[in-house]
Design goal:
It is a single chain. This protein is mainly alpha-helical. It has a domain of about 100 residues. About 55% of the residues lie in helices and about 5% in strands. The protein has 5 helices and 2 strands. The chain has a two-stranded antiparallel ribbon with strand order 1-2. Helix 2 runs antiparallel to helix 3, helix 2 packs parallel to helix 4 and helix 3 runs antiparallel to helix 4.
Length: about 190
């Protein structure tokens, strides 16, 4: 067939091989996995298990959420728990910077919990989610305040130690006898 004949047969409803398109040989092949018809392209494809509700417990409240909301909730809860753990660790290590990180983590977790709470229909669930975030912020803020107070109390003693070289003040003992100069730097 020449090129003109091929174009003409295609325009008349015949395939490139000269047969009508409705009369194809053999069964139609299965579409590949993930293929979507033209009418549904551009729309997000929903997974069948994404709509199954899951039960979640916050405090004394139990509520059901979809898989996507559950992922958001768990992410927010991880931030709140991380803020609480970092706050407690900063109390033992004694770091203002570490407790500041705890406050930031708790605030991020609270904001994410607020986003999840907006999707909940029950008012008691919303309150429970917000309360969880507020507790994380309060605990990490308390750790920050305690670390700042301990820094303010210890800073003059650390300055004295740096100037005199008398490290016995750290342990509460009497100053050690010095030979010659009493300055650390000479």
């Amino acid at each position: 067939m020449s090129e003109d004949q091929k174009k003409q047969s295609e325009e008349e409803g015949f395939g490139a091989q000269g047969r009508p398109e409705s009369q194809s040989s053999g069964p139609k092949p299965e579409p590949p996995a993930g293929w979507m018809p033209q009418s549904t392209q551009g729309q997000p494809q929903q997974r069948p298990h994404a709509q199954q509700p899951r039960a979640v417990v916050v405090g004394k409240e139990t509520f059901t959420v979809s898989e996507t909301d559950l992922a958001e909730f768990e992410n927010a809860r991880k931030f709140c728990v991380a803020g609480q753990i970092v706050a407690l660790v900063s109390l033992f290590i004694g770091g203002v910077l570490l407790s500041t990180v705890a406050v930031v983590l708790a605030i991020i977790g609270y904001r994410k919990l607020e986003g999840v709470a907006v999707k909940m229909p029950e008012e008691s669930v919303k309150k429970a989610l917000k309360r969880s975030g507020i507790i994380a912020i309060a605990l990490s803020a308390l750790a920050l305040v305690l670390n700042i107070v301990s820094l303010i109390v210890l800073l003059p003693m650390l300055g004295y130690i740096a100037q005199t070289g008398d490290y016995s003040a750290i342990f509460g003992g009497s100053p050690a006898p010095s030979s010659g100069t009493s300055m650390t730097w000479g």
